[in-house]
């Protein structure tokens, strides 16, 4: 059926389209009225270095629980916040929260934090994020900002300039969800990134699809040639772990090792997993059981 446009021109909506407009409006309203400081929180998913069998870092993942809307997926509320102009406030809150948890972590564990490219078009937004890290007293070398390729393409020159600035401050940079956007290889080479994250879409069917396995192999080679770290997302099974290990990839993030965890659980996970080597010589010597 038709709805009246403000100029009186009828516009046709499918029912599905109407639903998604209504959902987006509800989220937008929720985001403005929400007590974001109270309702936003962060979970941490371990990134394992399988070559050393230890937690190398955690990716901070945004969570929003609203009393009316319930638990909202980050994919939905981040997109809405980007469009509605609240992404800046939201990111500042999340970064502060994430850094608070990080205060308890061992120094050799890094944090990956997702940045919306919308923020990178504004020098003041960027500067604010950098001072939040400074105020927390966390070394920039312990933080990897993740950005997605699709986002970069929207405002290429400005974003690349910001990325150079971020690197100059001592932060690392990862290109997230690699393979799903449209960066050409020459773009990747020009970007001041330090790592790639292979999107989980390629890992999902690796066991069944030789084509996906070839893509993963090609990205692994690309990383070796460009001297980039390579993180594999979405490893869920032993078989997938075997396949990526066969390609000499050893930074793994996925449900096989752990789902995203609440801060205290994340810390406990790292302490447990990273303790075997370090504490081995702190253990009391074996007791003499001979008589
Ligand atoms: P992402 O940065 O690629 O994060 C990884 C997503 O994959 C997370 O979903 C994580 O829970 C999920 N994942 C990890 N391992 C597995 C696995 O083995 N199997 C499956 N099926 N999924 C796995 P999540 O938390 O729903 O986040 C979705 C996306 O939302 C993120 O994708 C990121 O693009 C965005 N996002 C999350 N937090 C933030 C944030 O603070 N700021 C911004 N700008 N975006 C964020
Ligand atoms: Mg990410
Ligand atoms: Mg990702
Ligand atoms: Mg992803």
From TrEMBL:
Residues 24-274 form the EAL domain. The keyword Membrane applies. Keywords: Membrane, Transmembrane, Transmembrane helix. It comes from the Bacteria. This is Diguanylate cyclase/phosphodiesterase. One of its GO terms (molecular function) is cyclic-guanylate-specific phosphodiesterase activity. Signal peptide: none annotated. The keyword Transferase does not apply.
